[in-house]
Structure to design on (98 residues):
């Protein structure tokens, strides 16, 4: 299995910029699991806050986006109000209702 539960836990904490150990990096961060392309964590909490702000403002919006994998250009500074940044995105649909 490419992403056992422990690896998913690691990447969740990694991408949310939480503390992780060198041992965890050695155990779970592999080229098969994305390598450098899998490192889009810079500004992730800000990206999530931007998407939440969008949905709180317009609950049916299609502009609530978390850009991946651009780490330097546009990604960390995304603004849901900017149509140029949000009109061409990959989509992942999530159900926020339990």
């Amino acid at each position: 299995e490419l992403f056992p539960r422990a690896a998913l836990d690691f990447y969740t904490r990694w991408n949310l910029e939480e503390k992780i150990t060198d041992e965890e990096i050695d155990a779970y961060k592999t080229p098969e699991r994305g390598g450098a392309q899998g490192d889009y964590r810079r500004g992730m909490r800000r990206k999530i806050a931007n998407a939440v702000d969008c949905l709180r403002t317009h609950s049916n919006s299609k502009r609530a986006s978390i850009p991946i994998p651009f780490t330097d250009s546009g990604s960390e500074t995304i603004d849901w109000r900017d149509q140029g940044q949000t009109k061409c995105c990959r989509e992942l649909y999530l159900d926020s209702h339990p």
Observations:
- Residues 10 and 19 are 10 Å apart (CA to CA).
